[in-house]
Amino acid sequence: MMAPPLFEFPQSLRALEEENEDNRLYARNPIDVAHLRPAQLEELVKGVSFDLSDKELFCIEEQDVFDRVYSLVRGYNVLPATCKVYLVESLRSNLSVLLPNVDSLSRASQGQDDVTPMLDRVASHRNAFKIYTFFLLTVVLTEEFNITSNNNVKVTASTRKKQPKTSWNWEPQRGRILNLIANSLEIKLALLFGSTGLEENYISFIAKNAFSLFENATLLKDSEAKDALCRIIGACATKYQYMAQSCASIMHLVHKYDFVVTHIADAVAGAEKKYADGSLANSLVREIGRTNPKDYIKDTVGAENVGRLLVELSDRIPKLMSVNIGLLVPHFGGESYKIRNALVGVLGKLVAKAFKEVEGEVSSKSVRLRTKQAMLEILLERCRDVSAYTRSRVLQVWAELCEEHCVSIGLWNEVATVAAGRLEDKSAMVRKSALNLLIMMLQHNPFGPQLRIASFEATLHQYKKKLKELEPDSPSESEMNRLPSVSNTSGDSEVDDVNAVLTKEQQDSLPDSCSPQMEEDLVQKDGCVPDVGNLEQTRALVASLEAGLRFSKCISTTIPTLAQLMASSSATDVENTINLLMRCRQFQIDASEACLHKMLPLVFSQDKSIYEAVENAFITIYIKKNPVEAAKNLMNLAIESNIGDLAALEFIVGALVSKGNISSAAISALWDFFCFNISGTTSTQSCGALSILCMAAKSSSAVLSSHLQDIIDIGFGRWAKIEPLLARTACIALQRLSEDDRKKLLSSNGSRVFGILESLITGFWLPENIWYAAADKAIAAIYTIHPTPETLAANLIKKSLGSVFECSGGEELQNEIGSGSAGIITTVKVERLSRNLFVHANGAMPADISKEIGINAELGLTASEDAILDTLSDKAEKEIVCGGSTEKNLIGHCAIFLSKLCRNFSLMQKYPELQVSAMLALCRFMIIDASFCDTNLQLLFTVVESAPSEIVRSNCTICLGDLAVRFPNLLEPWTENMYSRLQDPSVSVRKNAVLVLSHLILNDMMKVKGYINEMAIRLEDEDERISNLAKLFFNELSKKGSNPIYNLLPDILGKLSNQNLKRESFCNIMQFLIGSIKKDKQMESLVEKLCNRFSGVTDIRQWEYISYCLSQLAFTEKGMKKLMESFKTYEHVLSEDSVMDHFKSIINKSKKFAKPELKLCIEEFEDRLNKFHLEKKEQEVTARNAQVHQQKIDSMEDFVVTRNAGEANIESDIDEETDGEVVDPFTEGMPQSVNEMSKSICAESEEHSVASSELTESEPGDTEIQSPDVNLRGASKSRAKKSNMKDKKSCMSASSRRNIRSKQR
């Protein structure tokens, strides 16, 4: 019997139609199914299906059946859905039945003696196996190709209608087919293919198509199909040694498609688990390890995917990866931060998972522990990586390790120290990761639920005493050496040190033994502590307590940094800082509670996320407790807060009341505190409770309705004398009453209330420092609740006047003030006069407001009546101050008196407290009336500049802001004087000036004039708060419109360059301002503007400053081109080394982002800069040499004339002397000095041929021995002539040129 033809896997489906000379199976008579009628096609399919099911499994190798199946597979796309189902199901079922028969073949061969029929049967099974596999995989590929093509084509309405209704569900069939092929690879195929192994083209066909299917993202979403493909790849690579090709295909997929990474990792890990063979993983790691690190710089997507694959493999097969980690470590030195990020993640996974079950011999155990320790050291080292992305990733890995409890006590404090240091990192993402790491370390710390330093110190002290008692009196040397090693387990010791000291049982109980809850119980009344065990256990406990103390101190030291981070411009900084402080508070870290109070002003942040973070923290800390506790927290906040915090507290309390977060029970508890219903309540607490209730009433006025009588009785009763602020708070409560409550109050207690308010204003039962604040609120309360407040205000002013002038002395006092005498004023009258002026001023402002409200109510605010309204408002203002009317009212009389009083500078200097009240009152009157303001504006600026009291200057500075809002046209000419307040020697004046100008500029009430450089100087103010306010101002200014700082920067640069600023301060200011410019177009434009400034400047210092500013810009490709194009504007400044350094800095930064083409241009530009720099230096040196040479020639001519005159005098002196006499010292000095000068000039002229050090050398005998007079003169002449000649022929040395240059500067 002739053997059936063999089936060989073709290169393509159509290749099966090609006739072969050898005995191979091919399609001899294919049928074109596309031209068959539906009935014929259905009949063909059913016939094939019947034959495959009715005949033997390997009937597929029969020529007729093969041809028909081939024809149907070739024309698969034209088959209707039912035909596809018949065909696919027949092929799949036959292959599924064929697979178990393979094992039966081996059993049948053992029972038969004749081998030949059995070999033929095996060959038939092998043929059928390959044919079924080929056709099924071809169907899968065809179907997937069709699905992908249909998804890529836009589906229109017409195509939807043409879709057949009987479309079949392909997804389940696909999963079953791929699983069947995967199963076929897992049986003993050696029975079919022999001991030589599978045919290479069979494995190649299976693997190639499996990898091609892996490129289909939609298919991989089908878990059944994906798992089957993973099994196929794992079997081909691992079981059938198709390793090299599989590795290449996997790396190709990973580099090209990011969605395959996790699935490839599943396939590799699955192969290792199923076959207990990690060769595929090893090959991949080797392939990645030997890749050139530079390749990953160009292929960033590939680098990211490769990194993800490594992390996924480390997660799935950590022990195998830990063996191969040495192949990857060299990539830490590569430039691709994505690979470094991935390797950091790999180390984190390995530390967490690869060393959990440490079994085997002691030597192997120690090796694994050393490996783990080496990995941890690398992770610590990477915290200082050059890339912010890598630093951030390392901190994230440490957080994961802390969460997994994989960080030993030995490394705990080291990691905490690194994280604390990273809080000041320049990158926001690194700071975020550091904050999250510290949160995680607190949450999972091994030292206990409370970390108070004092608690740890007390417990540690006691246990150290206990340790001394347990130690022998004369410990051996070995024991002495062991104790430090135990105490160091919390510091620099390694993992195995901790394990060596503590048994497993002790380690498990360690956190409990160190917990401060236990510590509080440990240190009992008698000062003794419970016994924890033997000497070793006590040593271990002491070591852990020391570690806990260090950790607590480390976290405490970060509190000042956290306070700064809450003012960060990055929202993530603020949010995570608040979260960390919340966690610190939970663990009772020292100073965390006080730091959390600083978050209150952040409720005004425009960033919604920041506000929500503050609100959530506020609710958690202060509100989410029982009502009494919540009320007490809020009350204490009100007592402890400053003015700014009280404003923030009022805002957030109002918001929480409107949302219902503050319950009615908490409100009731606050009333109980205010009414002293809770025992032990103090007057201060009562005042704090009323403050919170007033804040709540701003959102819900009904809060105060039920306790009106209590507000009057307690707020203005005897308790107000004990706590003076209680009266002021009660006045605020009266202002917050609802309309109905006001009517109710007036009807029942109106006269009593106004009597109390009148006594508060005119009486003297409140202290001086409290009275002003209370009187201010009392007057405001009168104007809020009184039906005719002007009448009551007039009576108050009259009473106040009566107390000052005592009815008869008024005119006398005014005359005294007008004449400049102050004899009549006494200390008592000064106090009363100050109060009177305060009442006048505060009565005048509400009167102005009240009149405007009345006019508005009569006329309405329609646009057509604006002119009438303005006229009546002006009239009302003049009536109040009486700027020009014939009849003067009370306030009008006071205005004239006040103006005279403030001009009496001698009186003001004698009574500074009077000047405070007088100037405040004057400013209040100026705000009301424009003409009065114009008249006294010069006086106000004189006082604000020259007043000795900083309180007066501060108040006047604030009033200038109010006046600028009220009368901008009047204040506009005084803009420079307003900016000059920024230079005041007083910190408070400068701070208020910054606040006032910030408010005016940011709210468009003042144009940014040419004095903004004064505000820029405040960025480097010696007071940190002022510096921070200035930074806040420029940050907010940069957010307006198209960033005004961009337009202001050149002007600021020019003015700062001409001011006497330290270089460091200038650089810090400009660096901050340039950092606020983010747009590339503005940066590029600034390059051109700054380059143009070089041409108009001759000062070297300004060249340096301009070039520094250029170096701070973030250069883009266009910016670099503009810098190169502007070369002519700055080529003349390149001779300066400092300028050249800044240009080199620009070039170095630009090379980092430049593309290859731009990089070539930058290198050419660098060569050009260096060339010009050297040329300019040489030109400068030549010019200086010529100048110095000319100066020396001129000096030599003067010297010769002087020498001749000196010689004549010497000759006349010598004639008078006798031979042999001693030369007179005075006459001796003349020729000697001439001699020395000529020698020094000679030395200078000979410097080209001798070392420069010879400049100051002289011959020893020249000054020690005198020659005869005549010879001396002759020597002087000859030397002078020689020196003159040499001087004309020589140039100066390098050292002398430098000396002259420095002298010129």
Automatic annotation (TrEMBL):
<dbReference type="GO" id="GO:0007076">
    <property type="term" value="P:mitotic chromosome condensation"/>
</dbReference>
<feature type="region of interest" description="Disordered">
    <location>
        <begin position="469"/>
        <end position="494"/>
    </location>
</feature>
<dbReference type="InterPro" id="IPR026971">
    <property type="entry name" value="CND1/NCAPD3"/>
</dbReference>
<dbReference type="GO" id="GO:0010032">
    <property type="term" value="P:meiotic chromosome condensation"/>
</dbReference>
<keyword id="KW-0498">Mitosis</keyword>
<protein>
    <recommendedName>
        <fullName>Condensin-1 complex subunit CAP-D2</fullName>
    </recommendedName>
</protein>
<feature type="region of interest" description="Disordered">
    <location>
        <begin position="1212"/>
        <end position="1305"/>
    </location>
</feature>
<feature type="domain" description="Condensin complex subunit 1 N-terminal">
    <location>
        <begin position="86"/>
        <end position="244"/>
    </location>
</feature>
<keyword id="KW-0226">DNA condensation</keyword>
<comment type="function">
    <text>Regulatory subunit of the condensin complex, a complex required for conversion of interphase chromatin into mitotic-like condense chromosomes. The condensin complex probably introduces positive supercoils into relaxed DNA in the presence of type I topoisomerases and converts nicked DNA into positive knotted forms in the presence of type II topoisomerases.</text>
</comment>
<keyword id="KW-0158">Chromosome</keyword>
<dbReference type="Pfam" id="PF12922">
    <property type="entry name" value="Cnd1_N"/>
</dbReference>
<dbReference type="GO" id="GO:0005634">
    <property type="term" value="C:nucleus"/>
</dbReference>
<comment type="similarity">
    <text>Belongs to the CND1 (condensin subunit 1) family.</text>
</comment>
<keyword id="KW-0539">Nucleus</keyword>
<dbReference type="InterPro" id="IPR032682">
    <property type="entry name" value="Cnd1_C"/>
</dbReference>
<dbReference type="GO" id="GO:0000796">
    <property type="term" value="C:condensin complex"/>
</dbReference>
<dbReference type="GO" id="GO:0000779">
    <property type="term" value="C:condensed chromosome, centromeric region"/>
</dbReference>
<dbReference type="GO" id="GO:0042393">
    <property type="term" value="F:histone binding"/>
</dbReference>
<dbReference type="GO" id="GO:0051301">
    <property type="term" value="P:cell division"/>
</dbReference>
<dbReference type="InterPro" id="IPR007673">
    <property type="entry name" value="Condensin_cplx_su1"/>
</dbReference>
<keyword id="KW-0132">Cell division</keyword>
<dbReference type="InterPro" id="IPR024324">
    <property type="entry name" value="Condensin_cplx_su1_N"/>
</dbReference>
<feature type="domain" description="Condensin complex subunit 1 C-terminal">
    <location>
        <begin position="951"/>
        <end position="1111"/>
    </location>
</feature>
<keyword id="KW-0131">Cell cycle</keyword>
<feature type="compositionally biased region" description="Acidic residues">
    <location>
        <begin position="1212"/>
        <end position="1222"/>
    </location>
</feature>
<dbReference type="InterPro" id="IPR011989">
    <property type="entry name" value="ARM-like"/>
</dbReference>
<dbReference type="Pfam" id="PF12717">
    <property type="entry name" value="Cnd1"/>
</dbReference>
<dbReference type="InterPro" id="IPR016024">
    <property type="entry name" value="ARM-type_fold"/>
</dbReference>
